[in-house]
Amino acid sequence: MTRLAWGRVFGVLSQLAAIALLLVSAWLIVRAAEQPPVLYLMVAIVSVRFFGLSRAGLRYVERLLTHDAALARVTEARVAAYRDLDRVAPAGVTGRRRGDLVSRVVSDIDAVQDRMLRLRSPWVVALVSIAATTVLVAVIDPASGLVVGGAAGAAMALVRVIVPWAVRRSGDDSSGWRGDLAADVSHGVIAAPDLVAYGATELLRESAHRSIDRLASAQRSTARLAGIGEAVVLVATGIAVAVVAGMSAGLAPVLVGVVVLAPIALIEPLTAVADAEGLRPSIEDAERRLAELADAREAVADPVVARSAPTAFALDVDALAVGWTDIVASGIDLVLAEGEVVAVAGPSGSGKSTLALTLSRLVEPRAGAVRLGGVEVRELAAADVRSTIGYLAQDEIVFDTTIRENLRIAAPSASDADLLEALGRAGLADFVESLPDGLDTAVGERGSRLSGGERQRLCLARLVLGGHRVLVLDEPTEHLDEEAAEALLDDVLALSPERSIIVVTHSPRVLDRVGRTLELGCPGRPVGRRTRGQAAGV
Ligand SMILES: Nc1ncnc2c1ncn2[C@@H]1O[C@H](COP(=O)(O)OP(=O)(O)OP(=O)(O)O)[C@@H](O)[C@H]1O
C-alpha cells in the first residue's frame, strides 16, 4: 500500500476516533446519570481517554504520511512542468507571459497537492465515517440508521453539486488572476528602469492593482460561498437530529444520546467535504492550465528513429522558409563549408533571428531543408543538432551566480583550466584573472555587475566551452562601442576555421569584416538573395 493510502487509513481512523469520542461520551453521561457502580463505567471512561488521545496521534500520522506523499508528487509534477517548458520553448511559449508561466509552474502545481490532500482525502474520510456511523446507528435502531445515512448522503450530494456550481458562477478564476498578477509583477521588475525613465510606473501599478483586485474579489466570493456548503451540512444534520430524536421514544435511555448525537458527529467530515468542494473549481482550472502547457506544441519534434549524429559539420540550407505563426522569410539558400564564416543581414523584421533559431534547431523550418554534414536535420535528434550548432542569443541570459557556474552550464564537468581556456578564446581571461575572486566572482542578476562587452564575452566563452562546431551568433556586437565591438569581432572570427560561424548583424563594419553575406528580404516579400564581398557559396 502506498504512503498516501496509509495516510488516508490514518485519516479515517482519526475521524472514527472523533466520532467514537462523541458517541461514547454521550453514552457515558447518560449512563453516569443513572448512578451505576463505577466499575460499569470504567470501560467507557478508558475509551473516552483512548479516543481523545488517539485522535490527535492518528491525525498527526495522517498529516505526516499524506503530506509526504503529496510533496513527492508535487516534486514530480514540478519537474514534469519544467520538462514541458523545456520541450515547447521557445515557439511553444510564444504568447504566454513569463510571470504567468512561473505561476503555472509554481502555484498551479500546488493544485496537484490540493487535489490529493484537500479534495480526495476529505471525501474518503467522510464516506467511511458516514458508513461506519450509519451501521452503528442502524445496529441500535435500523430506522434511525436510515435517517442518519440518508441525511449525510443527501448533504454530500447537494454539496457536490451546489458548491462548485456557485463558485463557478461567482466567476472565480483564481489561477488565471494569480497568473496575470505574477506576469505583471515579473514584467514590472524587468521593465522597471524604462518605466521609471518614462515616468510610467503608474501604468504598471494600475495593471497590478487590477489583477490584485480581481484575485481578491475571486477569493472573497469563494470564501463567502464556502458558507453555502456549511449551511447545507448544518441543515441536513439538524433535520436528521430532529427526526431521530422524534423516533427514539422506544429506545433505552442510554442509547438515545448515542443515536441523537450521531448526525452531529458527522458535521466535521461533512464540513471538510463542503470546504473541499469550494476548492474544486480552482483545482480544475489549475490542472487545465498545466494540461495546456503539457499539450503545447513541441517547438521541434524529434524523429521516431533518429539517425546518428554526423561528424562532419558543413551546412547546406536549401529553399528554406522560416517563421512563427506565419512565414517570415522564404527561399533561403546557403552553403557553408566547415570553418567558413557568413554574415546574415537584412532589414529589421526580415527574419534574421528567426533564421538563427531555425538553424540552431530551436524553431522548426516551415519549408525547405537544412542539412548538417549531409544529413537533413529533421532526421536527427534535436539534441544532437544542438550539440553541433550552438546559438548565442541577442539577449543571452547571464545567471545570477558566479562566472564559474555561468560557464559550467555548457560543460558541467569542465575544469578551471578548461574554463580559463574558453574565457581566453572569448578575450575575457585576463579580466577574470584580475578579479579578486576570479572564477568565483558573482556577476549579479542578468550579469548586472559586468559591462555589456564583458557580458557578451562571458556568453561567448560559454558557447565556446560547449564544443559546438557551428556557432550562430545573433547580433554579438550589439550595444557595444566601436572599439569593444571590433575587439569582440576579432575574437569571434578567430574561432574559425576550427568552427563555422554565422553572424546575424546590422553593422556595416561586421559585414565588411566577414566579407560574405546572406541578405534576407523585407518582411512580407520573398527573400532577395544578395551577396557581397567573397560571395562564393551563398
Ligand atoms: N517568438 C516569436 N513569436 C512569434 N513571432 C515572432 C517571434 N519572434 C519574432 N517573431 C516575428 O518574426 C518576424 C521576424 O522577426 P526576427 O526577430 O526574426 O527579425 P529580425 O530580422 O531578426 O529583426 P531585428 O533585426 O529587428 O532583430 C517579426 O515580424 C516578428 O514579429
From TrEMBL:
Name all ABC transporter domain ranges: 314-538
User: What top-level branch of life does the organism fall under?
Assistant: Bacteria
What are the GO cellular component annotations?
Answer: plasma membrane
- Listed transmembrane segments: 12-32, 38-58, 123-140, 146-167, 225-245
Q: ABC transmembrane type-1 domain: from which residue to which, for each copy?
A: 9-252
One of the protein's GO biological processes: cell redox homeostasis
Task: Tell me the keywords, alphabetical order.
Answer: ATP-binding, Membrane, Nucleotide-binding, Transmembrane, Transmembrane helix
Q: According to its UniProt record, where is this protein located?
A: Cell membrane
Pfam assignment, any one: ABC_tran
Query: Which InterPro entries does UniProt cross-reference here?
Result: AAA+_ATPase (IPR003593), ABC1_TM_dom (IPR011527), ABC1_TM_sf (IPR036640), ABC_CydC/D (IPR014223), ABC_transporter-like_ATP-bd (IPR003439), ABC_transporter-like_CS (IPR017871), P-loop_NTPase (IPR027417), Type_1_exporter (IPR039421)
Keyword Amino-acid biosynthesis recorded: no
As one GO molecular function, the record gives: ATPase-coupled lipid transmembrane transporter activity
The protein's topology relative to the membrane is: Multi-pass membrane protein
**NCBIfam families in the cross-refs:** CydC
What protein does this entry describe?
A: Thiol reductant ABC exporter subunit CydC
Please give the organism.
Aeromicrobium fastidiosum
Upper lineage is: Bacteria, Bacillati, Actinomycetota, Actinomycetes, Propionibacteriales
